[in-house]
Specification:
With 201 residues, the chain is an alpha/beta fold. Strands 4-3-5-6-7 form a 5-stranded mixed β-sheet. It has a two-stranded antiparallel sheet with strand order 1-2. It contains 8 helices and 7 strands; from the N terminus they run αααββαβαβαβαβαβ. Helix content is 44%, strand content 14%. The chain has 2 domains: 4-53, RecR Domain 1 (Helicase, Ruva Protein, domain 3); 62-200, Dna Topoisomerase Vi A Subunit, Chain: A, domain 2, CATH 3.40.1360.10. The chain has helices at residues 4-13, 21-33, 36-52, 71-74, 89-96, 125-134, 148-164, 188-196, and strands spanning 53-55, 62-64, 79-86, 103-107, 139-142, 169-172, 199-200. The radius of gyration is 20 Å and the shape is elongated.
């Protein structure tokens, strides 16, 4: 039988996505046999995670606790009249690595998923509509993931935006992103091409 402390670490690591029982065991044993400082630094970083990170109240991008707004919004070099919509905060960094986009972002906080009980009302759509009015937005780029949920969300956003702001140009990232792959896993060449060749909805 494994020592309780080691067993607890294995069980905790097993909660991470993509980490099975064997992988959790390897990670736990790595931490046990290496310098305790690694475990201490990891524990401290995890302890600060929830108190050190918050969401920007306008873009819903992740920011430091002591920040008021995201730099993706406050940077004067950013074009506030163009908003690129993503599902999750980490999708922003995938787009940023292409160095092709200079507008602002808006994080929905997920995608419509009837199976999971996620409706349009649970996403940051109202805040998006407020931004369109406030920042005099001329283009909205929908960059939801190329999944069934992402496509459903994109279609509903298209309908809402065309109805409420018919003068705003609504585009979608061009095809080329493989189905079933999250933005954060796409390579920069594919993302650059998709961003450059976006099409009207």
């Amino acid at each position: 039988m494994l020592p309780q402390a080691l067993s607890d670490v294995i069980e905790t690591l097993g909660h991470l996505p993509g980490v099975g029982a064997r992988t959790a065991e390897r990670y736990a044993y790595f931490l046990l046999k290496n310098n305790p400082k690694i475990s201490e630094e990891m524990a401290l970083a995890l302890d600060n995670l929830h108190t050190g990170v918050k969401s920007c109240p306008i873009t819903f991008a992740l920011i430091d606790q002591n920040q008021e707004l995201s730099e993706f919004y406050t940077d004067p070099k950013r074009d506030r009249s163009t908003i690129l919509i993503v599902e999750e905060p980490l999708d922003i960094y995938a787009i940023e690595q292409t160095k092709e986009f200079h507008g602002t972002y808006h994080v929905l906080g997920g995608a419509i998923s009837p199976i999971d009980g996620i409706t349009i009302d649970e996403l940051h759509v109202k805040e998006l509509l407020d931004r369109i009015e406030q920042d005099q937005v001329v283009e909205v780029i929908v960059a939801t993931n190329p999944s069934v949920e992402g496509e459903s969300t994109a279609l509903l956003l298209q309908k809402i935006l065309h109805e409420q702001y018919p003068e705003v140009k609504v585009t979608r990232l061009a095809r080329g992103l493989p189905l079933g792959v999250d933005l954060s896993y796409a390579d920069q060449i594919t993302l650059s091409a998709a961003l450059e060749n976006r099409t009207n909805l």
